[in-house]
Amino acid sequence: MSNDGISTLQSVLQRHGATRALHLHLVDRLAEAPALLRRHYPGQRYTVVVDALTAGLAGDQIALAVGAGMVTVAPRRDGSVVAGRVEAEQVTRQLREQNTQVAIAVGAGTLNDLTKFASQQLGIPACVVATATSMNGYTSACAALLDGGVKVSVPCAAPRLVIAPVDLLCQAPARMIAAGFGDLRSRPVSGADWYLGHRLLGTPYAAEALHLVDAAAHLASASVAHLVERTPAAIAQLAAALLLSGMAMDIAGTSAPSSGGEHLISHCLDMFHYAHGGPQDLHGCQVGVATLAAAHLYERLLATDVLSLTSQLTSQPTPPPEESWDDLAQRLAPHFGSLWATVQPVAREVHGDADHRRARLEVLRRDWPTTRRSLRDILGHDPVSTRDLLLAGAPVRFVDLGLSPGDTRAALLHARFVRARYTILDLAADLGMLETWVDELLATGGL
Ligand SMILES: [Zn+2]
Question: Whole-angstrom Cα distance, residue 353 to residue 361?
């Protein structure tokens, strides 16, 4: 891209990064990475963390240029490289054995998560050289690790130095680029969910984080027309958008600004994949499709006469849904199977009690005109449009992710039990409408 374009994006990143003591470098060429590493961490013992693929792409070159040691994460039996507890402990041990002072992930989500986790354990800074614009976790302050078949989010320091070389990012597989766009496509619904939680449960809502998420969404939309061609300008915009979006989670102290019900659906698919061999796609591809589903549910909510529905519900001694915890647990246990032991305490918390449900419905009824207006503003006029995802080459239907209609229905109904975070899925359930709306959506929504 033009030097002007990249330096404008770079100055935006630098300005935002400085507020978090993060050094973010969007650069034209991978060849610029070694000098940046040496500039920020002069005279240190570096180790690069790679897998077989990223070693060939960039890891070997960087290790040679800065005189770094190397840790290569081995694939599992099925050939996939996983950010699991076992791998995380292996990486930690190897970094320790090499007396590493600065760990450098060369890769995308998996290698970045492993390196962040291991660096946190060792009390050393983590850096990352990004190889794909596939997700927004580069700058986030947590690592998603697979632990006992379940993805857990482990808090740890964000990488202090992120280098995004546009020439390398342009070579990433098309599906990974589409996934990065899909991850950012969650903005309307994750923003609406975050707002809902704030409105109905009083959870914190940070304007500064929202501002960054908006800046990220704006850059992502600007990039979409040329992502499939992988023009350096479009890839640079997407990379900058992903870095800003990850930082927003860091600033908010929660992933909520960029992660609502659509992410719960994606997590649920991941859990079923690891535990029961269910279908799985790249995180951002799942998030993009799930975003459309959540956006459809929001449209149903906004078209509903919420005032009379909530009046009816709150006038009853126990507002529906009246299912007891025992009945619900009996229904959910066979569905989650071996995952149930892990999910059960979260599901119990999500189910809550009738008093809290009534309180939420009363707040909803009292403030509905304002809430409705704000939700419409956050969602935009057409959040269910598939146009931008299709332009980015991303999937738009659950069947594109390999899910049957039955799998899809189960994921939409049960995803809310895998993490206690209030989203449109919970609100639809509070209103006693989740099943009806999901069934309508599956019958008519083309998902
Ligand atoms: Zn995500």
Answer: 13
What's the gap in Å between 121 CA and the centre of ligand 1? 24
Tell how far the Cα of 286 is from the centroid of ligand 1, in angstroms.
Answer: 9
Q: How far is the CA of 35 from the centre of ligand 1 (A)?
A: 31
395 Cα–ligand 1 center, Å: 15
**Hey, what amino acid is at 380?**
G
Mean pLDDT value across residues 132-158 = 89
Cα 394 to averaged position of ligand 1 atoms, centre (Å): 14
Distance 54 CA to ligand 1 centre (A): 21
* Interval between CA 136 and ligand 1 midpoint (Å): 6
Extract the runs of DSSP E, i.e. beta strands, from 73-225. 102-107, 126-130, 142-147, 150-155, 161-165
Alpha-carbon gap, residue 114 to 120, rounded angstroms: 10
Q: Give distance in angstroms: CA of 180 to centre of ligand 1.
A: 8
Write out the two tokens for 239: 């990379």
| Encoded amino acid at 354, one letter | A
Long-range contacts of residues 380-383, Cβ cutoff 8 Å, at least 24 apart:
380/188, 383/188, 383/189, 383/291, 383/295, 383/298, 383/299
Structural domains in the chain plus CATH codes: 3-171 (3.40.50.1970), 254-444 (1.20.1090)
Strand partners, 154: 143
1 against 444, higher pLDDT: 444
Higher pLDDT residue, 103 or 444? 103
Q: pLDDT class for 12, splitting at 50, 70, 90?
A: confident
Task: Give the C-alpha distances (Å, rounded to integers) separating 58 from 105, 109, 171.
Answer: 11, 16, 12
Residue 128 CA to residue 250 CA, distance in Å, equals 16
Going from the Cα of 210 to the center of ligand 1, the distance in angstroms, rounded, reads 16
C-alpha 353 – ligand 1 centre gap (Å): 30
Cα(389) to centroid(ligand 1), Å: 15
pLDDT of residue 3: 53
Residue 320: per-residue pLDDT = 63
Are the C-beta atoms of 149 and 338 separated by less than 8 Å?
A: yes
- Distance between Cα 13 and ligand 1 center (Å): 20
Instruction: Tell me the C-alpha distance between 349 and 352, whole Å.
Output: 5
What Rg do the C-alpha atoms of the chain give, in angstroms? 22
Question: What is the H or E stretch that residue 405 is in?
Answer: helix 405-414
Q: Give pLDDT tens digits for 188-221.
A: 999 999 999 999 999 988 878 888 888 899 999 9
